[in-house]
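quick one, 128 residues, struct below
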Amino acid sequence: MEFTIDLQSILMLVLIILVIVIILLILKFVETMKRVNRIVETNEKHINETLESIPVITKNVEEVTTGINSEMENITGAIEDVSGTIETTTGLVDTLNKDVLEPLLELAGILTMIKDFIPKKKKKGLFK
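---
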């Protein structure tokens, strides 16, 4: 008994195996699609509610964003006002320092020098 394998027999076997694999893949794909279809049918109400709420959510996000932009403009204006007030106050302090405090300090120095030139009276009594 002699058994020979030719190329045609090998190709036929590979083709049969390939057809079986393709059939199994198609069956698996059909089963997966059935599951997906069941999930969609089960959650159809929730999916529709979600899809209907998306425009409302988008509108709310837009309103919040607009409100935030408006508030940021107000905050920017307030910061600019505070900055201007700080600059004015700094200028006022500098002016006060130059026009009032420095002359007073110079006057105090002059008075101290005058006081040092005036002779001190000696005290009479027990405690000299």
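The CA atoms of residues 78 and 84 lie 10 Å apart.
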